[in-house]
Design a protein that fits this description.
The chain contains 14 helices and no strands. It is mainly α and 360 residues long. The protein is 72% helix and 0% strand. The radius of gyration is 21 Å and the shape is globular. The termini are close together.
Length: 360
């Protein structure tokens, strides 16, 4: 397949794409508005001017006024809104990278089984008491991340048996190990000692950003930007992977090494995200796929736009989850699945009818 100067696949009948720079500016403005609304809206609504006043005083180092509004804005809502943006951006990046890694535009960040390992670690912490300082003293997030790393090692070992690093072998290893770990997780859920514990496990498995703190932001605030820099530096290699291993090798890309790097980056980032937010589906599948329809397959444009779109989607979804019901909070995964499944069916229909996504 011929390629353009960027190394991205070119097609003589390629559909017209939107300008990536203008789209990034629009997404950036919408994200800023969504963050403002997320902090302003809630059981106690605050005017945007008051919200930005509190943030400005805190950021500038000026003495805070104190009081309930200051606590609501700075201690409760700002960390949660920022965590939602970071998780969404991370899921967008992971989804984009995994789709290039396995050469499938409908692949999902959880396809490699890493989220199943993180979920098992967190559920074990809740059911067996590690989250309260029991076994290993890891805490909930630490146990989830440890589960992700162990799963990463298992999938890596299975995928590498016999040499090479073929996408099909990687996917099969991830799916098989992920399904096994999901079965163990279900067994632990059945072992939960009381109703409250079971509800906590199920709510976490469906994704939640409740209880976000400034301390929780540290890991994703470091991991997401670092992953973006690493992936963006390999954008040309990602473009080459889409054209097949032989073509990529002809362009000077070491496909084996690149896949190992992508697998490591996506696995660690997935572990970090699941550790702070639980398992949130459809975002990493739907966001990159939608952005690809809008701007094409060039990862130099696709990666930043997927990060921005993922952040915007998660901030909006989390705000809906927090404010839709008066008596309780909706799990994030419920809302993302509700909007993600119909959206994905629509995108698939567009591909089948018109090939507008450059279906391969």
């Amino acid at each position: 397949m011929p390629s353009g100067p960027s190394g991205a696949p070119a097609s003589p009948a390629a559909p017209r794409r939107l300008p990536a720079g203008a789209l990034a500016c629009v997404l950036g403005v919408l994200l800023l508005l969504a963050l403002t609304a997320a902090v302003s809206w809630g059981s106690t609504s605050l005017p945007p001017g008051e919200v930005w006043g509190v943030v400005a005083r805190r950021v500038s180092g000026a003495a805070p006024r104190g009081g309930t509004d200051d606590m609501i804005v700075w201690q409760l809502r700002v960390p949660r809104a920022l965590l939602a943006a970071l998780v969404g951006a991370g899921l967008g990046l992971v989804g984009t990278a995994v789709q290039a890694l396995v050469r499938n535009p409908l692949a999902d960040p959880y396809l490699l089984g890493i989220s199943s390992g993180a979920s098992l670690g967190a559920v074990a912490a809740i059911v067996l008491g590690a989250g309260a300082g029991g076994a290993f003293g890891l805490g909930l997030s630490g146990a989830a991340f440890a589960g992700a790393l162990v799963t990463f090692a298992l999938v890596w070992a299975v995928a590498r048996r016999g040499g090479g690093f073929a996408p099909l072998r990687l996917v099969l290893a991830g799916v098989a190990i992920g399904q096994f770990l999901s079965g163990v997780t279900s067994y632990l859920v059945l072992r939960a000692g009381d109703e409250q514990q079971t509800q906590s496990v199920l709510f976490w498995l469906m994704g939640s950003l409740g209880g976000a703190t400034w301390e929780q932001l540290a890991a994703p605030a470091a991991a997401v930007p670092l992953a973006f820099v690493l992936l963006q530096a390999r954008a040309r290699g990602l473009n080459a992977l889409l054209m097949g291993d032989e073509t990529a090798a002809g362009l000077g890309v070491d496909t084996g090494r690149l896949r190992r790097e992508l697998f490591a980056v996506t696995s660690v980032l997935t572990g970090v995200l699941v550790a702070v937010s639980g398992a949130i589906g459809f975002v990493g599948l739907m966001v990159p796929h939608t952005c690809r329809l809008l701007v094409g397959d060039d990862h130099r444009r696709l990666l930043p736009l997927s990060a921005l779109a993922g952040a915007l989607l998660m901030v909006v979804v989390d705000t809906v989850c927090r404010t839709a019901m008066d008596t309780q909070e909706l799990p994030v995964g419920v809302v993302t699945s509700t909007i993600g499944a119909p959206a994905l069916l629509y995108l698939l229909d567009r591909r089948l009818r018109g090939g507008q996504g450059g279906a391969r």
